[in-house]
Each structure stands twice: as C-alpha cells, then as structure tokens.
Amino acid sequence: MTAGKYAALISRLKALGSVAVAFSGGADSALLLYAAHEALGDRAAAITALSPVFPRSEADSAEEFCRRFGIRQLAAEFDIMKVPGFGSNPTDRCYHCKKALLELLINTARKEGPEHLAEGSNTDDEGDHRPGARAVAELGVISPLKDAGLSKSEIRELSKQLGLPTWDKPSYACLATRIPYGDIITLPKLAAIGRGEELLHSLRFLQCRVRLHGQLARIEIMPEQFEEIMRPEVRGKITRLFAEYGFSYVSLDLTGYRTGSMNETIKTTEV
Question: Is residue 2 very low, low, confident or very high in pLDDT (cuts 50, 70, 90)?
C-alpha cells in the first residue's frame, strides 16, 4: 500500500513542474524533499528557515541531508519576534507564526525559481489543535504527503526503505510550543529551553520536551526511560546544568512524553 501512495506522491510532484519544499530536517519534510528531488531533479529545492525557535542543530542536520543527496538548498532568515501576535502567545499563535513564515518562504522561493511551495503535513496532522493549518490553506501551500494519504508511520516506513537517515528521527516542533499559551515568549526563554533539550539529547533522551512554567522546567521523556533519568549521576547533571540555564526548579512529568501537551489546557478550559 505504501508503494502505491509513494507512486501517487511522485506523480503529484511531477505535475507541479517545479517546487520548493519547506524543509526543517524532520522525517516528514525529508521524505517529501527526497521525493520532490526524485520527481523533478534540479527543479526541486529545499528551503530552510533560520530562527531562534529552531535549534542550530536542526539547521545543521537539514544542511547535511541536502548535501548527502545533492539537493539544492535555500535559506531564509526568519525574525520571528517581529511577527505580530507571536510574543504575546495567544492560542492561535501558530497561525500568525506559520503565516508569516510561509509568506517568507514563498517570496524567497519565487525569487529563486520554484513556482510552488510544499510543506510536510500528513494525515495524522488532521487532529489536535493546529491553527497553523489555516495559514497553509489561506496561502495555497501544497501538502503532497497528506494528498497522497500518507500517515506518520507510513512516512517512516517509506523513509527506511529508501535509506533516509531521518526514518527514525524523533518528532520535533518549534520551541515556542514549550511555553503555555498566554505566557510571554522571549528569546532568553527560547534559548534556555533549547539548551535544556540539547542536554537531554546528549544524555540519550532523544524523544523529549522541556516545557516551561514560570521558573519551573517540566521534562517529558518516554516512560521507559524514567529509571535512567533518576540515576543519581544523571539527575544531578540535569539539575545542576538546568540551574545554569536559568531554571529554578526541575520536574519530571509522570505521564511521559506526548505531542501537544500544552494544548491539554485548551481542552480543559473548553469542557
């Protein structure tokens, strides 16, 4: 079944003539970019946004992917703090951010030649609280993975079959999603969260989040790693370095890692 969906994806991309793929370096956009390059060759390009909400390590991995597969990559500096409605962090923050980002990518791509902009949403993205999807629709950005009916698990399966290094890469979202709605977003907060997650990655907690609640860092990791993080030497290193990053308190979320946990407060409020 996935082979048929991949063939449909290739056919859809060929029909575009030329395309720039909004490329974060994650599993979804990596498969889309690889397929676009297969379908269109040099008429396909990656376009990566550089912003404080994305750690430098993500930009580096995106650059390495393009170099490995010989794909042209464009870069766009995104000054996210200038986006109206971002810093105040309303529940539709993602809409304002996504719209400004996509407008930047569209304009950058058109200057370089590609006629269309494609992004990596899949069928699993149709649930949860995703105001950014409205920006995608308003600006006419294409979502070929979703159009081909590909789910997250199918994307990973195809990526593994194709030998893409991103097939098992942990899911990622911008650092602003770690801050509760209504709390002001600042560059120091984003930097502290990013440093915290980089530390956890270095300790092999690869699927993790550092959620910020005032001066408290709420760590989400996979439940099967709870025992590892509670080892005295690991726990001591985390608490010591998190204090250096500016966190007064550090906690472990006993529910464990899950996507969109900040959206749980919206659902609670709406009940």
Answer: confident
- Choosing from 161, 184, 218, the residue where a domain stops is 161
Say how many CA atoms lie within 13 Å of 194 toward its Cβ. Answer: 17
Structural domain range at position 32: 2-161
Q: What is the DSSP code string of 5-63?
A: HHHHHHHHHHHHSSEEEE--SSHHHHHHHHHHHHHHGGGEEEEEEE-TTS-HHHHHHHH
Residue 73 and residue 16 share a domain? yes
Last residue of a domain, one of 114, 133, 161: 161
**How many angstroms separate the CA atoms of 181 and 127, rounded?**
19
* pLDDT, tens digit, 9 for 90 and up, residues 166-215: 999 998 889 999 999 999 999 999 999 999 999 999 999 999 999 999 99
Does one domain contain both 128 and 217? no
* pTM (two decimals): 0.90
